[in-house]
Amino acid sequence: MITAKHQPWAEFIFDHYISRLISKHFYSLHLLGNLPEIVPGKPIFFLPNHSTWWDGFLIYRLNKHFYKRPLYLLMLEKELVKYSFFSRVGAYSIQPGHSKKVLESLRYTRLLLNSPAKENPSICIFPQGELIPWESRPVKFKPGIDWILKDTHNPVAIILVGIIVKFLEQQRPQVFFKLDYSEYIAGKQKINSWQLAQKMEMLLDEMNTNIVNQENGHIFFRGTRSVSEKWQ
Q: Quick one: which of 34, 56, 69, 119 is 20 to 30 A from 179 by CA?
């Protein structure tokens, strides 16, 4: 597998690149509901739904804006081989279909979650394991999450991240996030992939209701204005 090799110079370049890219393609990024406050020293385990090509970049922007932690993000090895630069900003790889290599990636994820408190990382994997429209039901997660969590030494802040991208009244789409926080301590709670998938399903349904009711939440990033706004 390919491990993450954070480089400050690469993150500086990547941050400016991603800000410009998101600004060009989206009208705004919105946070629905409240932002969970996570105490320093507790690793964050982001588990987003995965319905667009943009999701990894969007999680990067969410983490950068609100949590400002080093981000480790799991992506397909065939893609990381093509875009090796991403390993310098925290990407690491997985090879589905190769059980030994999958286990190696899961071990690495667990190692990151067991990092010393001073490292304060955010770790992100897409538990659906593939691109699936957010409306698809039932929501199903791969069972690797159970294996990762069962032997974690640190309390883990599990954050389900609902992501919905919508074309509404603007020329460019708007991105909506909503976060659901659970604390996990190995040996004291029983949180499994099925329960988390059920919670994600409810979270996405809540978000859709919020959006239908025209709730904008907190806009934390504004992109390119629509043509109509420029003419006005």
A: 119
